[in-house]
Amino acid sequence: MQLPARTINSYKKLVITRRLPVAGEVLVQRGQKVSALQVIARAEMTRRYQVIDIARQLAQPEVDMDQVLLKAEGDEVEANEAVATNKSGLPLLRRVVRAPVAGRIAAIGPGWVLLETERISIELQAFVNGTVSNIIPDRGAIIETNGAMITASCGFGGEAYGPLKRMVNAPFEAIQPERLDETVKNRIILGGRTVDEPLLRIAEAAHVRGIIVGSIDASLLKLNPPTRVRVVATEGFGDISMSPFTFGVLGTLDNKEVSIRGTVPAPIPDTAGGVGEEPPLVMTSTTREIGRPAGATEGGQKAQPGSRVRVTRGLLLGASGAIDSIPSEPQAVESGIIVPGAYVKIHGTSHYVPWANLELVT
């Protein structure tokens, strides 16, 4: 049975694609070793535009732009500088269209000019410690490394990098506000169950870079003002404890440098995290050549007895275990519906779970 896969692995060869949103300059070469905070590409991107209605201001609905324009596409203009004028007639009767603000003429259309009024510089960091395996011309690079990676369910705030500090002893525990002291400054902290706005504000004041928890409430995506703390939830939205298996893998990364990406899993308007085109995740990486730990596997997409899986729906949501057996015929679930699935051993007990409610943990 082919299942959607979720990576929760304490050791894995990682291949990370880093890409600018617009064309720019790539600053690294193939084969070069890079660190997580190293800038590997940069670009400039337009942030704001303003339309100048030439036809209306000249009172000429069918204006011939070639006849009235004083500037061309790509020209820089100053505030109040003339952009167009009706050149015929007496000088005193001529109308002049001026730029309302300084900018660059980005486009010219029938009766209008699009003025680019603000540009911002974008710097793309490597995000992981590794080696550049390929270059994406004008956009970025593909980086390979070794390390642990956990594909999460959701989050917000973007990317962060720093040493991980475990703040709880069990996956169902919440972070206690009084523990957010000077020892968490510039760190990414690991909780268990969930996080709320008061704790986020305290963490922000303590200069915490990021938080990893089991779940978040969807209302945190619309905080006003948004928090500067990046947040990753391994299980999803709601009030769900972190999977013990995931918590165990993250626990092995205590005091190690980790990279996190907090993004929402689907387009949600007006959120702090924006549209999650790349999956939310947690990873640690190394440039050293290290051997695969005993028992570690790359994991495939096909589920079979012994495969580790995670329950994504139903009463066992968030639980993980190993496939005990796969019956040849569909079985009845608690609701009475007969569906194909597998018997999964969770905490020593075998449960029949539909395939639709499972994902593979690799």
Give structural notes.
There is one protein chain. This protein is mainly beta and 362 residues long. The protein has 3 domains: 5-14 and 149-286, Glucose Oxidase, domain 1 (3-Layer(bba) Sandwich), CATH 3.50.30; 47-120, OB fold (Dihydrolipoamide Acetyltransferase, E2P), CATH 2.40.50; 308-361, no CATH class. Helix content is 7%, strand content 43%. The protein contains 4 helices and 27 strands. It has helices at residues 54-57, 65-68, 197-205, 244-251, and strands spanning 5-6, 8-19, 25-26, 33-34, 39-53, 76-77, 82-85, 96-98, 103-109, 112-125, 130-136, 140-151, 154-156, 158-166, 188-190, 194-195, 210-216, 230-237, 257-262, 281-286, 308-311, 320-325, 331-332, 338-339, 341-346, 349-354, 358-361. The strands form 5 sheets. Strands 2, 4, 11, 12, 13, 14, 15, 16, 17, 18, 19 and 20 form a 12-stranded mixed β-sheet that branches. A 6-stranded mixed β-sheet has the order 1-27-21-22-25-26, with no helix packed on it. It has a 5-stranded antiparallel β-sheet with strand order 3-5-10-9-6. The longest helix is centred in the middle third of the chain and has 9 residues, at 197-205. The radius of gyration is 27 Å and the shape is elongated. The protein starts with a strand and ends with a strand. The relative contact order is 0.16.
